[in-house]
UniProtKB/TrEMBL annotation:
PROSITE patterns per record: CARBOXYPEPT_ZN_1, CARBOXYPEPT_ZN_2, PEPTIDASE_M14
SUPFAM superfamilies, alphabetized: Carboxypeptidase regulatory domain-like, Zn-dependent exopeptidases
InterPro entries, per database record: CarboxyPept-like_regulatory (IPR008969), CARBOXYPEPT_ZN_1 (IPR057246), CARBOXYPEPT_ZN_2 (IPR057247), Peptidase_M14 (IPR000834), Peptidase_M14_domain (IPR050753)
Identification of the protein by name: Carboxypeptidase D
Membrane-traversing stretches: 1024-1045
Keywords in alphabetical order: Carboxypeptidase, Glycoprotein, Hydrolase, Membrane, Metal-binding, Protease, Transmembrane, Transmembrane helix, Zinc
Ranges of residues in domain Peptidase M14: 1-75, 187-482
One function term, GO molecular function aspect: zinc ion binding
Gene: svr_3
Length: 1115
């Protein structure tokens, strides 16, 4: 190899070459190692022949053996060491710099580093965010196979050393008036010129720049981003990410040229200007000069009219700043354009902290929210985020550093609004639904503002220099704000980063999440804060921090302790070990059935497993539907109980929802076993149907966090399009739901943390009660996911909800528990722990009415139908007892009941929070009274006992109209009746019924007080008499039993005794024998039997106390 000419037509001096000098190779592994890691890699070509014959392998081994060994020994060439803080804790991610060599290496999680160097003398420094740098000079590296050890101790940066970097600019070398060491040309760049300019910057500054694309426009133009950082291409733990996006509207060109100039300014001044150097060293900067390259190409220069729309939209004529998902406005559902999709994926892939969207046509700093809180509000109305103080500070940072923006007198010709201090809340200016800055705030950690840079959207070329001078300071100062507030790491007890931890500021309802390395950033205004961190599987931790008015952040690290699963289970889940054991794989259908069978066998009076059709048949087993019923006295008639279904696994890529279903079933069964009073009471009123759904092809999906492929969710797609009979499993599910007709159904889903109902319809009951359930859901489970990105599958989910509600007439809501559709099975237990309280309060929220329809003889009227005055829902009664049930929000309702052959009956019913109003409707045959009763007069009052204590839950009935109400916790009630003489009846458990007649005239309200007497009778007898009689009867029974027992004990001996001449001696006299001369040894005499004296061998003789000895005879 050393002679360099071993192969024909190739000559390498000393047998080595620089790869690029030999031939150009993009995407090579050795370059990747050097750029993206600490590793130095070379490529060694071992032979001229790529696949030599085996006969030459021995020779090749002899040639290469020494080289391979010697090369491995080179790993020790240079320096190595540890980087620690003053407490000897390792500092991960610290940078090791060699003066004069523009290439750094990073420390490992244990603070170790290795740096290959040639023999010589070096100046070496180590630095890390939040620490003062440390420098060693004159470090000698010897020509040796042993590394020189250089350890560093970095001291935590003291707050007193914080400096407002915006006031510092150290000039070194000559720069022109625009701040450029190398003069630039102020001109507009079309797409081709823009790409050439970006490539030129990247080529000239390869050590601190990277040019990449995030996607393509409608017409196929690349959406380029220029990255400027000391580690291009990778996120450095602890270093914040910043972005500028310009030219979103194609005809607003100022921002496009400002970002090209900013890129040149940063690159040219890096290493010359202290401020720029510290900015690039401390922040990873991303600049996107154009988001709408297609629109720019048809725009016109010099147009003053801000209403000019040529080039504003993309090539599909869509305004990109109205095209983002907006989860504050549920009716805003748009198909995302290619540019929008690319930006969303980009924003989601990098942990951006701060951002600005550069526009033109006005001169103002616009901060969120951009949309008003009310859809379609024609009058602009301010809408503030929970971080309004932060956004105002950020907006003023830009406007106050701009020479004109903050001036009240500075207005554009088209302005109809005055902008105090040059800032405005977007919604107070005009509402923008689907804007990019709102999407950033609601769906990511990133805080974004929109800056309108000038009155002219597309100024003439000659004006660009003036725009640069106006905006340069603002652009730089705004970037420096990325380090304002708090930053740090969330670590576990082993020092590993915890990703996706929620970092919440007490009092501000907007959490951020930790990045993959556990690093986080939270921009805050100066002040004292309590910051809490939560993460799956870890205990919550809260710490205090003071934030200074500085662009040097306050460091706050968190070390989380793993959650004690058994401890949580004891407190919340009856110590169910099976619910907190981490699972490595999801249960198959057979395994799920086994779990449910075990649960059924453990408490068969509460749990029942049902499969339809019968799963014993192998062919039907694959398509069978599993139901697991849980209720008190399962199997007994349950017409009077609310039937609630909980469906999990409907979406094949969300198997965790089935496991949560199993956990929930175990919880209720175990709660009943342990006589938990709330669960016992709940299961006495409801029948829970747990339905784990399995696709026939369960593994037909990709195990990724989210997917937007509708073809994956076969069954829901068939249901959404009313083609459920196309697949056997789906058809069986549909038939089961048709047959059962549940009063309420909850579908457990993933893809976001939210509760969803069917498409809003003001006359559907579910649309109204959904509001109550939303309050219960979000008060127990916070949405930390943002808007789901699986829009196509979301459309299917919405149609499924609509189908269940509108076609099957089952009130259905979706409870979405996880941000991802698919989660690792190990995380399932933590999802259960996190969503446990929400599931309990939502499922157990039974509130509404329960009635039965009978004739005057009390016979059920089974053809009755029921409607409620303000809703379109129609209820049928059950086939046996003619019972109907309805979930309703709090309020007063007129219930209308119709049946063939009977007059329609209208009843006024009140529904109270968390209670079910129970009543009976007595129907009159046709020709026996009025068809409709006008119930317009209010009767109110209270129900008390004789000691004036309120009675809650008393039933107040108007016998004349069957209008019913119940008393509140303070005993008060309200009842609506008709005119005339009314008979008001009040009954309560444990009290005598009270009846009063009142005369209603002119619809005037009346107040009636009821006092109920405690019912002291038992079986219609006075309580004292019942007690005396009970004691007497028990005594008689007891004595009789004892008499029989003694008779049995002293009765005739057994046949064995007769045959063998033995009999047991009674131990005490007969209880009822008054003869004092009872013979203790009374023995039966058998005819013709012989007697003989008995001698015990142990007693040869004995002496009795009497003078006369007595012989004992036995048979």
């Amino acid at each position: 190899m050393a002679n360099g000419s071993a192969c024909q037509e190739e000559h390498f001096k000393n047998g080595i070459t620089n790869g690029a000098e030999w031939y150009e190779l993009e995407g090579g592994m050795q370059d990747f190692n050097y750029i993206y890691s600490n590793c130095f890699e070379i490529t060694i070509e071992l032979t001229c022949c790529k696949f030599p014959s085996s006969s030459v392998l021995t020779k090749e081994w002899e040639y290469n053996r020494e080289s391979l060994l010697t090369y491995m020994e080179s790993v020790h060439m240079g320096i190595k060491g540890l980087v620690q803080d003053e407490n000897n804790n390792p500092i991960p991610g610290a940078s090791i710099h060699i003066l004069g060599i523009n290439h750094t290496v990073k420390t490992t999680n244990r603070g170790e580093y290795w740096r290959l160097l040639l023999p010589g003398t070096y100046t070496i420094s180590a630095n890390a965010p939040g620490y003062n740098a440390s420098v060693y000079r004159n470090i000698i590296v010897k020509n040796d196979t042993r590394s020189t050890t250089v350890n560093f101790t970095l001291h935590t940066l003291k707050q007193s050393s914080a400096v407002n970097l915006s006031t510092i600019e150290v000039k070194s070398g000559k720069r022109d008036n625009d701040g450029f060491p190398i003069p630039v040309t102020f001109e507009h760049h079309n797409y081709n010129h823009l790409v050439s300019k970006l490539n030129l910057i990247n080529v000239n500054y390869p050590n601190i720049t990277r040019l990449y694309t995030v996607g393509k426009s409608v017409q196929g133009r690349d959406l380029y981003v220029l990255e400027i950082s000391t580690s291009p291409g990778r996120h450095e733990p602890g270093k914040p990410e910043f972005k500028y996006v310009a030219n979103m509207h194609g005809n607003e060109a100022i921002g496009r040229e400002m970002l090209l100039l900013l890129a040149q300014y940063l690159c040219q001044n890096y290493g010359i200007d202290q401020r720029v150097t510290q900015l690039v060293d401390g922040v990873r900067i991303h600049l996107m000069p154009t988001m709408n390259p297609d629109g720019y190409e048809i725009s016109r220069q010099g147009i003053e009219d801000v209403n000019d729309l040529v080039g504003r939209d993309n090539a599909n004529r869509v305004d990109l700043n109205r095209n983002f998902p907006d989860n504050r406005h549920s009716l805003h559902v748009q198909k995302q354009e290619p540019e929008t999709k690319a930006i969303i994926e980009w924003i989601k892939s990098i942990p951006f902290v701060l951002s600005a969207n550069l526009h033109g046509g006005a001169l103002v700093a616009n901060y969120p929210f951009d949309s008003s809180a009310i859809d379609g509000n024609p009058i602009p109305q301010a809408s503030y985020t929970p971080d309004n103080d932060v956004f105002v500070l950020l907006a003023k940072t830009y406007s106050m550093n701009h020479p004109k923006m903050h001036l009240d007198s500075n207005k554009c010709a088209n302005d109809t609004t005055s902008f105090k201090d040059g800032i405005v809340n977007g919604a107070s200016w005009y509402s923008v639904v689907g804007g990019m800055q709102d999407f950033n705030y609601l769906n990511t950690n990133c805080f974004e503002l929109t800056f309108e840079l000038g009155c002219t959207k597309f100024p003439f070329q000659k004006e660009l220099e003036g725009y640069w001078l106006d905006n340069r300071e603002s652009l730089l100062t705004f970037m420096e704000q990325v380090n304002r507030g708090v930053k740090g790491f969330v670590l576990d007890d082993k020092g590993h980063g915890v990703r996706n931890a929620d970092i919440s500021v007490v009092g501000i309802e907007h959490p951020v999440k930790s990045a993959n390395d556990g690093d986080y950033w939270r921009i805050l205004v100066p002040g004292d804060y309590e910051i809490s961190v939560t993460a799956y599987g870890y205990k919550k931790k809260t710490q205090s921090v003071h934030v200074y008015n500085s662009t040097t952040p306050s460091w706050l690290n968190f070390t989380l302790i793993k959650e004690n699963l058994d401890e949580w289970s004891q407190v919340n889940d009856f110590g169910l070990r099976s619910n907190v054991i981490k699972i490595n794989d999801y249960n198959t259908k057979a395994m799920f059935l086994n779990n449910l069978k075990e649960l059924e066998n453990s408490l068969s009076n509460v749990a029942e497993l049902v499969t339809t059709p019968n799963s014993l048949d192998y062919h039907s087993a694959e398509s069978s539907i599993i139901q697991f019923k849980v209720t008190e006295n399962v199997g007994s008639p349950d017409e009077f109980k609310f039937k609630i279904a909980i469906l999990g696994g409907l979406y094949v890529n969300e198997p965790a929802t089935r496991e949560i279903l199993l956990f929930l079933a175990r919880h209720y069964v175990e709660g009943y076993r342990k006589k938990d009073k709330d669960i016992v009471s709940f299961l006495s009123k409801v029948v829970l149907h747990f339905i784990p759904y399995f696709e026939q092809n369960e593994n037909s999906y990709e195990k990724t966090c989210s997917t937007d492929d509708q073809a994956v969710v076969t069954s829901p797609l068939l249901i959404a399009t009313n083609q459920q009979d196309e697949q056997k499993t789906t058809n069986n599910l549909w038939k089961m739901l048709q047959r059962e007709q549940f009063d309420m159904m909850f579908i457990l889903e993933g893809g976001s943390i939210s509760i969803k109902g069917p498409t809003i319809h003001p006359r559907n009951t579910i649309s109204i009660i959904l509001r109550d359930y939303e309050e219960l859901f979000y008060s127990n489970l916070k949405n930390t996911c943002g808007e789901p990105l699986d829009r196509k599958i979301n459309d299917v989910k919405q149609k499924v909800l609509d189908t269940f509600n509108n076609v099957l007439k089952i009130k259905t809501m979706a409870l979405r528990l996880t941000c991802c559709n698919y989660i690792n099975p190990l995380e399932t237990v933590y999802v259960w722990m996190k969503s446990y309280h929400m599931l309990k309060v939502v499922i157990e929220n039974i509130q509404g009415i329960q009635g039965s329809v009978v004739d005057k003889l009390g016979k059920p009227i089974r053809n009755a139908i029921v409607s409620i005055n303000m809703f379109a829902d129609i209820y049928t009664v059950t086939p046996n007892s003619a019972v109907f049930k309805a979930h309703l929000p709090i309020g007063l309702y007129n219930i209308h009941v119709k049946a063939t052959g009977y007059l329609m009956k209208s009843i006024s019913i009140s529904v109270h929070r968390g209670t079910v109003t129970i009543f009976k409707v007595i129907m009159s045959p046709v020709g026996h009274g009025s068809a409709i009763l006008e119930l317009s007069t209010l009767v109110k009052g209270s129900v008390m006992d004789i000691e004036n204590r309120p009675i809650e839950g008393a039933i107040i009935t108007d016998d004349s109209s069957s209008s019913v109400s119940t008393s509140y916790h303070n005993g008060s009630y309200k009842l609506y009746v008709g005119e005339g003489v009314r008979t008001i009846r009040v009954s309560a458990h444990g009290y005598y019924t009270s009846v009063k007649s009142i005369n209603i005239l002119d619809n005037r309200p009346q107040t009636v007080i009821f006092k109920l007497i405690k019912d002291e009778t038992v079986f219609n007898m006075p309580r004292l008499m019942f007690i005396v009689l009970t004691v007497f009867i028990i005594s008689i029974i007891g004595v009789s039993w004892y008499h029989c027992y003694l008779r049995w004990k002293t009765g005739r001996p057994s046949s064995f005794a007769y045959k063998n001449g033995f009999a047991l001696l009674p131990q005490k006299p007969y209880l009822f024998d008054d003869d004092d001369e009872v013979e203790l040894f009374r023995n039966p005499v058998i005819k013709d039997s012989a007697t003989r004296p008995y001698h015990d061998d142990s007693d040869i003789s004995f002496t009795d106390s009497s003078d006369e000895s007595v012989s004992c005879y036995v048979r």
